[in-house]
Amino acid sequence: MNVTHLECALCGLRHEANVLQNLCITCGKPLLVRYDLETAGKTLTRESLSTRTSTLWRYAEVLPVRSPENIVSLGEGWTPLFKTDTLAGRLPVKLDLYIKDEGQNPTQSFKARGMTAAISMAKELGVKKVAVPSAGNAAGALAAYAAKAGMEAFIFMPADTPRANIVECQQTGANVTLVDGLITDCGKIVAERKEAEGWFDVSTLKEPYRVEGKKTMGYELAEQFDWNLPDVIMYPTGGGTGLIGMWKAFDEMEQMGWIGSKRPRMVSLQSATCAPIVRAFENGERFADEFENASTVASGLRVPKAIGDFLILDAVRASGGTAISVTDAELVEAVGEIGAAEGIFTAPEGSACLPALRKLIDIGYVSAGESVVIFNTGAGVKYLEAFE
Question: What's the pTM value of the predicted model, to 2 decimals?
Answer without folding.
Answer: 0.95
